User: Fold this.
Amino acid sequence: MNKGLFAILGMGFAAALITGCATTPATREVALDRAPITSKLEPQDVRRTVEKMAESLLSAPGVREAVGGNRPVLDVEPLKNRTTQHVDMVSITDSLRMQLLRSGMFRFVDKSTAGTDIEFMDAQANLGLTDQKKAIKPGQQSAAQMFLTGALTEMKTQVGRTTDQYFKFSMVLKDLRSGELLWADEQEIRKESTRPRMGF
Amino acid sequence: MSRVKGVLAAVALAAGLAALTGCVETAGTSVTTDHLTGNTLVLEDSTRLRDQIQVLRVNYDEVNGLKRVHVTLQSTKHRRLRMHYRISWFDANGMEIDPSTKTYRGLIIEGRDSMTVTGLANSPAGVTSKLRVRDLEAAD
Assistant:
């Protein structure tokens, strides 16, 4: 009786083990703000940084004075990556621009797409497809009055099995006419990971 | 026969424990503030979190035409607490504004200490703020 039961239990465990050894990786959708997996810079860190920087800039008294009742024209320069990790800095500045644009406080120009602007204007002027009365002529674009720029830096310390990693995003908003810095802020991120005693 | 019952009881216990450890509570504490009337509603949906953290004070103001909320949280424990919080904003019709731009941020509170978290509306249309606090284990 007992032997039979143990045999059934054994078969059950064996079946469970075999089905658990499927070759297809288990994939599922996870929340955007998930818990950290590594000590590297992760998407949730970038999202938090963009949110923090946007909130800080929009609530800064110096920015309020400079903006007044107008909506100044702003350009966002991609942040400089001074880390050893590959981070898409253009994507970060795109997210920041999107959040600032939605606040309605600024107007934006994008210097990085200037080449495409010229191509369009050139095509409208020279291909003969566009009504020349409606064609957009060069020399009419708004000028950026301010620009945002910044950098990402890191410091890494390794002691035994523990890795301590520190990241700092720093950003400044500069008035192009006066050359004054209207706003500056930084976001610090510090993470620690410990390798297990066993394993590879 | 009694040995068989013992084995079955052990298997059932193991299955029960596995099921329990797989169930992480994602409910937490929420603080909803109407910036037009000043009404604040605190909901403590997690008994575990309620025993760890309390809402001490809610203040609100306005900067550059955007509403801002400050919520002070107090730890009731003597050890360090690790939490996540998120402040989202709603317009006058109760619709959430750009939910994807408001993220969960980390919050580390030392024993018996209090901390103030601040959130700024992402649009001038934001008139109601909602702070959600959750346990770090609730993060996926």
User: Anything to note?
Assistant: Chain B touches chain A at residues 1, 3-4, 7, 11, 63-66, 68, 84, 86, 98, 100-106, 118-120, 122-124, 136, 139-140 (CB under 8 Å). The helical segments of chain B are 2-22, 47-50. The mean pLDDT of chain B is 88.
